Recover the amino acids of this structure.
């Protein structure tokens, strides 16, 4: 009798335990499903933020390219003197006017990207955790079928999240190009090359025209070239082709009196024609091809 009672109690306990385990499995599956729904909602919200970020990032890169073209065009159209002070002045002026605008937009977009990147990473990690929980439940025959179905749905979300992360990170990295573009100012190789172009062309032309004096420091400025030619002494100004030759002649004309006064006692000036005021110098303008924007 006692053995029969013990057996009956054991069967009852096992049945109760089985019911409890089944209930626990269903509860666990329900929690997995709820977590999946919540993560799907967070994914949708994050995707919307990623789309906004990438759109803003694209606009920023287009803006940077446009502003870089403006900056390069301005440099190629400028008559850049050979001295470093002029280079620094132009660079600062252009950076203040152009690069700072890009910087302000960049900071806003970069910070937004950083925040959404953090959120997407969290979602990706949590989706992986829920996927593991669903897979574990597949070992329970009572909820195996439902668990498999939920796990497949979660894995689909996992794939979507992975692609979203890759898309976000790729675009986020591309912002480095903006940082190395207009914002980099004179450290950008393209900008530096265009800034140096004018200096290089001045040096080349000064050699080609065998200038006797180069960048002579006067109260009226620094003429590019002074030549002592028999009966035709000249002050020559070199400018890029974005200017007219008359512009270069007018610039050279501003130096004539100062050059005359400086050269009165120079033996080389004996080649020049003279008046009672001193040697005569003729203003000459020469143009060189302006640099290209790309």
């Amino acid at each position: 009798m006692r053995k029969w009672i013990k057996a009956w109690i054991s069967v009852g306990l096992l049945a109760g335990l089985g019911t409890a385990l089944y209930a626990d499995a269903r509860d666990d599956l329900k929690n997995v499903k709820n977590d999946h729904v919540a993560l799907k909602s967070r994914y949708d919200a994050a995707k919307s933020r990623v789309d906004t970020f990438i759109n803003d990032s694209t606009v920023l890169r287009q803006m940077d390219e446009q502003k870089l073209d403006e900056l390069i065009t301005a440099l190629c159209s400028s008559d850049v003197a050979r001295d470093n002070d002029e280079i620094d002045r132009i660079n600062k002026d252009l950076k203040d006017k152009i690069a700072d605008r890009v910087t302000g937009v960049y900071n806003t977009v970069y910070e937004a990207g950083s925040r959404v990147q953090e959120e997407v990473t969290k979602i990706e990690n949590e989706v992986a955790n829920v996927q593991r929980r669903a897979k574990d439940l597949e070992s329970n025959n009572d909820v195996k079928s439902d668990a498999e179905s939920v796990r497949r749905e979660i894995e689909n979300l996992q794939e979507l999240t992975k692609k979203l992360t890759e898309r976000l990170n790729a675009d986020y990295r591309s912002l480095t190009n903006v940082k190395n573009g207009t914002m980099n100012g004179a450290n950008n190789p393209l900008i530096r090359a265009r800034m140096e172009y004018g200096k290089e062309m001045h040096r080349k032309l000064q050699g080609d025209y065998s200038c006797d004096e180069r960048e002579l420091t006067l109260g009226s400025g620094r003429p590019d070239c002074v030549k002592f030619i028999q009966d035709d002494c000249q002050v020559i100004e070199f400018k890029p082709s974005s200017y007219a030759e008359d512009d270069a002649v007018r610039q050279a004309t501003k130096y004539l009196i100062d050059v005359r006064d400086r050269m009165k006692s120079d033996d080389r000036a004996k080649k020049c024609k003279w008046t009672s005021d001193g040697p005569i110098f003729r203003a000459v303008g020469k143009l060189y091809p302006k640099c290209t924007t790309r």
Summary: Residues 2-77 form the longest helix (76 residues). The first strand starts at residue 213 and ends at 214.
